[in-house]
Every structure is written in C-alpha cells, then in structure tokens.
Amino acid sequence: VTTKNLIFIIQFIIILLILVIIIFHVHYKFMSYVCCRILQTKKRLDRANLLIEALSGEKGRWLDLVEELNVAAPALVGDTLLSTAAIVYSGPFTQVFREKLWSTWIELCGARHIDVSKKDTVSLLSLPITVQQWYTQGLPRDPFSTENAVLLMNCHRWPLLIDPQGQGKHWLRGLEKDNLTVITYGNIHMLTDIENAIRLGTSVLIEGVPEYIDSTLYPILNRRICEQTGVVTLVDIDIEYNRDFRLYMSTSLSNPNYPPEDCIKLTIINFTVTFSGLQEQLLSRVVKMERPWLEQQKDALLKRLFEDNLQLRKLEDDILETLSTVQTDILDDHELVTTLDRCKRTAREIEVRVTESVQMKVKIESTRKKYLPVATRGAVIYFIISDLTLLNCMYNFSLEMFMSIFKTTVYSLGCSYLTPDQEDTVLEFNFNTANRDRQLDFKVEKHIVDLVDHVTMNLHKQVVCALYSQHHLVYSVLVCVQVLRNSGHITDTEWDVFLHGGTLKLMSKSSEFGTVVEEDMMGGGGGGSSKHPGSGFSLKKTTRGKSKRIVGKPSWLSNSQWESAYMLENSVPAFSGLTKNMLDKPEFWQSLLASDNPFHMLDYTGRSRSDSNVSHMSSSSNLSLISEDSENDVSSQSHPSLLLAEQRPSWKWSNLTAFQKLMLIKVLRIDALSESASTFVSTTLGDQFLGSHEQSLVSVYRESKPHFPILFILSPGVDPTSKLQRLITDLNENEDMLEMLSLGRGQGQRIEEILRTSMQRGKWVFLQNCHLGHSWLQNLQKVIHSMQSESLHPDFRLWLSSMPDEMIPGPVIQHSIKVAMEQPRGVRANLHTAFISGAISSEMYCDEDAGLDFRKLVYNLCLFNSVILERRKYGSLGWNIPYEFTNSDLEACIQVLHQLMSEYVTVPWEALLQLAGTVMYGGRVTDKWDQRTLTAILRRFFNEAAIQPGHRFTLSESYQQGSDLTLEETLSFIASLPNYDNPELFGMHHNADKTYNEHSSRELVTFLCFFQPSYQLDSGCSNQDAIVMEFLIHVHKTLPAQITGPAFMDLMPEVQHSFLAGADRPPSVLIEKGYLQPKIKEAKQCTPMENVIRQEVRQFNKLLAEIQRDLKTLALCLQGDETMSAQIDEMYQAILDNKLPKPWREYSTTGDKPLAEWIQTLSSRILFMQYWIDINQEGTVPYQLFSLQYSELLKDREEGSPPVAFEDLIKMSSAYQKNIKQPVERVPRSFWLTALFFPQGLLTAVLQSHSRVHKVPIDTLTFEHLVHPLPSSREEEDKTRANTAGLTPAMWGYPGPDVPESGILVHGLYLDGGRWDGSNVVESLPGKQTTPLPETHFLPVQKEQAKLGEYDCPVYRTSERCGEL
Known about the structure:
alpha/beta; five-stranded parallel beta sheet; 7% strand; 50% helix
C-alpha cells in the first residue's frame, strides 16, 4: 500500500468514524429525547393524578356554584332592586317591620314578573366570612345587628346610627381601631377635627347628635366635592378631600324625629338592641361567671372556626388564582401541582376540624341553654327599664349600668368563679371540664330558679329605688305581665284589650253596644218579651239581617260597663257568654259590684284550676300558670265568698287566668283595679314585689362606686341635704369631707377645680339643683365620662340633685345611681317625718314654760300638716289646686306656736288660727274655696276641745295622743298608728276613697298605655290606619260641618248636610220651604238671649271647623297625599289611644274625657244648640208643640214603629200652630248649662232681660236658686221616669211644663260629695260620689231680698273643678 493510498484509507476510515460518531450522537440524542419524554410523561401522569385528586373535591363545589350562578342570573336585576331598596329605605325600622317590608317587596316583584332569589339582605350583600369577622370586632351576634352592619357597609350616604345602648359605637371602634376619631356633637373643636380627618383620610364618629343637625355639616353630608379641584368647602375653608375619609354619626335618642330635609342626606340605621341580641349577651355573661371554662371553650371554638374558615376561603381563592394565572402546561408546573396538593390536604384538615368544632359547638350550646331562663328574664326586664323614660325623663338607665347590676346579682349567689370585674380574665383549669360539668348538672335546675328569682328581685330593688311611688305598681305590673307574655300565658290580644278597651269600644264594627246579646245565648225561643229575674228590665227581640239580637241592659250596670262587657265578650274567647251570664245570674254580679275585694271574690276557691298550683313566678320559661288539676273541694267556711257558691256563674269560670280576671275587674270595677293589680302581682311574682323597697343612703353609698355619681331625683318640697349630712354622721366621717355647691352663673370653673381636688383626696362633692345650670351640664357630662377611665380615690363620691328636666344630658342620668326623693305618703309617715325633721327638739318639746298644752298643740299641728299634705292624693276633691306645702311652713308654725305658748297663759286661738291659716299655710293658697277648706280643717285641730283628754278626731281612737308624752314616747305612739288613713280624718266621706281608687286605677292604665300605645284588631280593621280612618268616617257622620240657623245665615258658610235630619238639607232648600229666614235681624233688635246664641254658635263653629280641617288633613296623610306633620302624627296617636287631640283640647270645656265620650258629649251639645235655634225662629216648631210631638215620638218608639223624621215632625207640628192663640217665648223650657262654652253669658243675659223688663239696675240683681222638689210618691217618680225615658241632656230642656215667667230652669248639674234629699244638701249615699241635682230655678232677685244663711256652693264646669262658674 502506497503512502498515498494509506492516507486515503485513513481519511476514509476517519470519515467513516465521523459518520459513526454522528450517527451515534444522533441516536444518543434521540434516545435521550425519548427517555426525557418518557420521564416527562411519567411525571405528567403522576402530576395529573395529583391534580385530579386535588381538584376532585372542588368539582362538586364548582358545579354547585355554577348551578347557583345560573339560577341567580335571571334574578340579578330583581336582587339588585331589592338590595338597593333595603339600603335606602329599611334602615330606620325595627326588625319586624323590615321583615314585613321585605316580604311585601318580594310579593310586588312577583306580581310584576320580576325574578328575585328570595334571599335576605345579609345573604345578598355580604359573605359569611365577613360577618364572622364583624362578630370578632364586637358586633352583637343577632340577625338585626348583622343586617344593620350590612346596611352601614353598603350605604352611599353617610350613616346615622340610632344607638341608645352604644353597641353600634362599640362595634365601629373595633372595626376602625386606631383609624377612628370620636367627636362629641357640639364640641368647639368638632369642625377642626373633621377638617383634619378629611385631609388625612381617616374616619370620624360624631356621637350625641340631637334632632337637629347644624347646617355647617351640610357640604360634607351632601358630598359637595369639586370634580376639577377635588376639594370640599367647610365654613368657607377649602379642604382637599381624601377619598379614604369616612363619616359616622350616632345619637343616643331612642326615638328621634329628624326632619325630612336631614333624612334625605343621611342613611339612618336603627341600631337599638334587640331582645335576641341582648338575650345572647346576658347568656354569655352568666355562663362566663358560672362556668368560665365553658365560655372560654366557646370563644376559642368560635375563634378557631373563624380562622379555619378564613384560611379555607383563602386557599380556595389561591387555587382559583393559581389556575387562572398559569402560563405553561399545567402538568409541567411542579410547584403549582404541589401547592394545589398542599392546599387540598390543608383544606381537608380544616374541614375535619370544622366538623368537629360544629359538633363541639352543639354540645356547648346545649349546656349553655340551661342558663337561658336567666338571660331571658334579664332581657325582659331590661326592655321594661329602657321604656321607663316614657314615664319620666329621669328614669334613664344605661345598658352598661344594667349589665353591672346583672353581673353583681349573679355573683352574689356565691356560685361564680369570677367576680364581675374579672369578666375578661382567662383561667387555666387542670382537670377535666366534662367531669366538672357533670358535678354541676345535678344542682343546676334549682340554681337557675334561684338565679332568676334573685335577678328579678335585685333589679326590682334597684329600679324601684329610682322611681316615684306612683310608678312602683306600674313597674311591678309591667314585669309581671311581660314575664307572662313571654311565657305565652297572656296573649297579645288580651293585653291590647286590657289597655285599649275604650278605643276598641269606639272602633268595633259590631252592632250597637248596650243593646245586643246573641239570640242563641238565650237558648233559642220565639218572639215576644222575656223578663230576666232581678235584671230590672224587659227584653225585646229584634231582627237585623240574619242575626237575632236582644235589646236592653241590666239596670244595675252603667252603659259604659255594659258596652265594655260586650266588647270583652267579642274580643277574647275566654269571655264568650259573659253578657248572657250577667242576665242569668244578676245576684252574683251585683254582689261582685258591691264587694270590697272583687279579685278575691272571683278567686274564692284558692286559685283553683287556673291559678291553684301557681306559686310565685320563678325562672323557668316553661312554668305554667294554668294547672290542669281539678278544683279542690273547699269548705264554705274557708272564704266568705263561698256563701255565694250557689250563685256562681254557669259559664266556665274556672278557665279564666288571673290576668283575665283582672280584665273583668277593669270592665266592671275600675275603682278596685289598683288593689286587684297588687293582688295579681303578689299572686304571680310574690309579695316582695309590692311596696317601695326604700334603700337607706348608707346602703346606697356602700353599693356605689367612685366612678358612678349618685343622683337625687327631687320632688317639690324635698331637700336631701339633711339626709346627706346625717349619712356623714352615721358613717363617723368628718363634716368637712362634704363640699356642697349650687350651679349658677360663673360657678363652672370653681366646680371643676373642686372636683379635680376631691377625686384625688377622696372627698364628697354635692352639686345641688343641676336643673338650674343648663349651660354647664355639657361640662358635667365630660367630667362623668372622664371618671369612667381615670383612677379615683376609693372614698370619692359625686352627689347630684335635680328636678325632672329634659335638658339634663342623657349620659349624665344613665351613668348615675338614681334615688327618688319625695315626701312620705300616708299620715303616719308624714307625722314621723315632721317629728324627726329637726323642727322639734327634745328641749323645745319638753319646755315647761310652754306648758303641757304645747305638746298637744304641736302634735295637732303636725297632724294637721299631714292631713293637708295627704288630701292632695284625692285630686280635686282634696284641693282645687295642688299646693306644695313644705317643711319650712311647719317649722315656722312650730316656732310661732312655741313663742306664743311661752308668752301667753291661755292659748291664743285666734292668733294661732290667723297666723297658721292665713299667713304660714294660707299664704300658699290662692283659691278662695281652698282657703275656706284650709281654715275649716285647721279649726278641727286648733280649738279648746282638741286639747282636752280623750278628744277623738275620728270615730276610732287611733289618733288620740296623751299630752304628757315625751318626744321618744310620741314617736313610739306614731309608729303604732294604722297604715290605712280613714277619709274621716281628712273631713271627707268614705266615697272619696272610691273616687281616689278609681282615679289611681285609671292613672295606672294610662301609665301602662305609655309602654304599648298602639294595637291591632284580630278582625275587622286590619291595621292602625284602617282603625283611624274608620274613626274619621264615624266623626264625619256624627258631627255637622257647621251649626246652621235662619238668624245666622250671614255668620256661617253654606254647609253640606244638617245634623238633625241625618240627610243632606242645604239651607237654600229650607229657605224655600219657609223654615229658614235668609236675613238676620238688626243688631239693635237682638235680645240678650239671641246674643248668647250668636256667641255660642261662633264658638261651636270654630271648633267644628278645626275638627273638619284636622280630619281632612289626617285623611289625606293616611292616603299618602300629604306629608304627616308632627301635630298630625300626635293627633293620629291620640285617636289610637282614645285621647282628646291637643288642638281640640283648647276648645274643650268638658274636662279630660276619653275621645269617644267627648265626641258623644259634643254631639249632644250641638243637638241642644240646634234645637234652641230651631224653636227660636218664626215658622218653626214652638217648644210646646215640640214637647207634644216628642211625646208621640216616644210613644211610637216604645211600640217599635220607625221614628218620625225631623222634617215630617216640622210639617206635622205646623198643622197645630193654628190652634195656638197667644205667642210663646221661644227659648228652651230648661237650659243644659254645661252645654255652653260661656255659661256666664247666659246667666248675665237672664239678669239683663229681668233688668229691662222690671227696669232695675243690673248690678243690684243676683240669683236665688230654687231646687225643684223630688217626686213625693212612687207613682210620681215612675211617671217622671217614663216621661223622660230616652232623653239625653240635650233633649231634656224641651218636653215639660211652661217656661217660668222670671229666670230660667237649669238641668244637668251634679252634686259632688253630697246629694239633695228634697230640701237640703246631705251626705252622699255609700258608693255614689256624684248625684244629679234636680232641675233648679235660677230666679233673679234684688240683692237685699236674697235669702241669708244659704250654703255658698261653688259650681264648676268639670269634675276636675276647672272653670268656676
């Protein structure tokens, strides 16, 4: 091989080797690629398995979510509409009304074919995790608060919270944390703080917003932000607006009334605490104190649930975000798959923990619910306490103060592991809590009962201490009733009927009251009359439609009682058959009406069946008031009422509960309602809930804390200074520790300096008469607010005193321990106070220079002082004007008495009577009749016989005191006096007690109505607006638009209809018929009587015009055509409460009557005036013919024929005019004096007419009053009754004999506290406080001819003795 060939071969080999290498490399690359693909595919398979496993659980959730979104998509527009409406409109309303509003909106959307998802507001506008976060920030865990938070977070306008309990503010502080600035409305730095917050973009909370908002805040409320510059102008200052700025406002007013122009600028949200929310808070507190480990487990569990749900939500969001942001193949992203797998494992662990937590939560809740009766009772009582401001503005209790009392009460039973101050303490337990729970469960039932009773009693003591005595029974009845309503033993219908029975009588759509009883109650039968034994009347059956009715009422029942009984029968099923039973068993019912204690008479079997086994209401919510046991056999000797056992009603009496018996007593024996209500409370809750439970200042001091001031709620004539000084003595403290200051001009800075010094040194500060220092009260509010957080000396106390005043800031009252200070009630208590007040010292009482008679006179003077003070409880029967006699009057009299007795040998009676009766006490008396009464009472105690041994001021010897007793012996004698004050001691008849009891009972019902002013009927009227509208129609049909008369056509406008005929009768028609005269007489031709008519018609027409105008406006408001003003809203509420509206009260001369009775009386007065006008005109009916025709009308009425129409009566009477041969005086035979607005004008007109006829000066005339004699025989009495049957006071003046030649006859007067026996005024009969005075002849005579020695008796318009004639 040549070299050249060798080189060629080598090159070839090299080429081959290169080719082989290339082939090998290519093959290697290919094999490497294949291996990588195999490995990659294997990894992808593994990752795919992991991904499938990781996302397998999400498939179901995503499918459900897709399905949910598909369903919700068509309802998106409807849900948006509903959500927007809820945010804009539902904020101010309560939870119940919001639910009703939401349901109404859903129905409206359905009617208009708008799809909605039918979810609630919270579900539409929030996420569960967000709600859980709000709970951790302090939001109460109830649906109403949650919905409020949703509205607040989604509203476009700045929110204004109605937050009287401060729970909304507490949540906002937790929500915003350090980003929130809290400002008090009205603070001088308010605008500066808002300006800084707008610039920095922080949040502002303005608290204490009143019912008016300063216009300087309007640019912020309206968000007047310049789009170009981004600034807002506040008080002429341009401020750069930061979009992160948020504004919150809150008010502590429970029911504010903001004007519409402010409401449209804000989103008002009602953050008032709800029953369920407060119940949960109280339950948490009681469990935290009784079983702190259980509550700690619950808190930790809720926290873990929130954290797990939050993490689970975050993982779900992370998965979706990761899947949506991946850029490459999802199977090649190892980190993504690993993250998904880790998230899935974590999610599974969380789901397991959540499931376990839910199971544990159920177990914890089952244990916590054992304490639910305690929380329920506390919540029931709190809402009663929170409404006490309706009685008095000073009865304002904060939720914080209530919680403090509640926790202290729970701790006081000795079973708590934590004190009230250790509520937030976390305890470590080294033993099994389950074992501890088992150890406590065996005694928890009895302990809970004790807890509820203790909570109820302790809250009762604390609250009653702050109430005036007249409100003690109101609070006790409210607690009793609300406890029974909460447990279902009193229905809402029963409570409404009890409170608003008078209005239900007026509004009911049943047939006429007082004349109807269902025919099937009589057991069937045919026509004709049936006589009920003992009922005193005959019944005639009449037919109305398909319903047979029985006409008539028992003679021993008044119209009001019969109407109320019929209303009760038709409103409450338990009283079905009541009126028939009254007709069947009149003896029993008459005995009930005469009983001294009707409640016990109804309950004579010892509370059998309905109440026999009812002990005092305790804690358990399932405690039944209705025992299913049969009636116990009790001997007739066990109770006097068993003597009437044979006369017991046949209807199911035993099924009545205690409250239903109370309802019956209110209907039939209103005077016994207060005493029966006390028995009802005693039977249901216990005797300890009656009485005042007065706390001594020593106990008040020891239960108080330096951080809470003590507020004396004053009443006229009471000064707590002496009691406070006595407290210092009892505590053995130095008198210098008390600083007494009176608020006044220029005292503010000095008071603040003394307060700062006293807080550090532990002294007491007494700020007197805070109601006189309105200008400094805001500073006082700041001082009290700072006291809550500062470190104070433990001996420091701030004492305040004030009369009830709405100008005192609410926080000042809320954070104070309140003590009501009022004069003692009862003669014994007043006597004791008089002797220990310091006005009588032992040295003065035993002064030998004054003699033994001095002691007797001092006792008599103190007894006189007690009598005149206690007479005030009888209202107008005691004094026409309630005078505020004070202790200084008594002290001055005692000093004068001691001086006179020391200087004179004999008692100077006239000097004592003059000084005490005219100067000391009489100086306060402004009414001449009260002055006469005061002098007469004083003469009973200051006379020679009154100091003689054995003298008695009453028939009993209770108040007979010896003259040789020392001061200590006299105090012991006073302590032995009876609690009951005999009216005889006050110089009053025993009927006065009945009047007082009736007044107290009506006052009790009035106070109770404050807490539930509205109601709804179960049938008939569907809502309150329909009730009021029905009333408007009733009044429109009852009252005319104007009073018309031919002599006054130029004084009154055209009217639509006449009241008398009951049909449309335009004046023009009557003029054409000749019944009306179109022109008025000349003024110079008018007689005095015509002037009286003219004056009265003007007043009546003013009232009628006001009524028609108000009713029309109210009707338009109810129809939505006008905006309801505050005045119309008050009228609306007054109609619902059966009270006289304030605008009409200005024209009222009939006292404070219920609205239904007032309308009826006004109708009768108008009827009287219209009759007077008609008979006073030529061409119309003279009174003699009217009398004759009216007798025929009565006769026809008795025979059952239809009544004669008014125009037919005129035509028929005109036919008789040709038989009249001489003119007649066209005035009523007798005048209904109280029908007139100005009766003095009538009496003056009578004197003027007499003066003109007899030509004597009118100033020499007076009236002689001749009372017509009573019927001398039974036949005459029956004849008189028959002739006047069916006559109202308006008609009484027309039938009868001729008009007297001189003077007038007057009817419609009543004697109060006496009766006419035919010749004299004598004592009233038992049970009859007022009796009608027979027709009286007012005869004008010369003053010198008037009889001497007659009793000078005042005449008043009303029973309240208003408007002396």
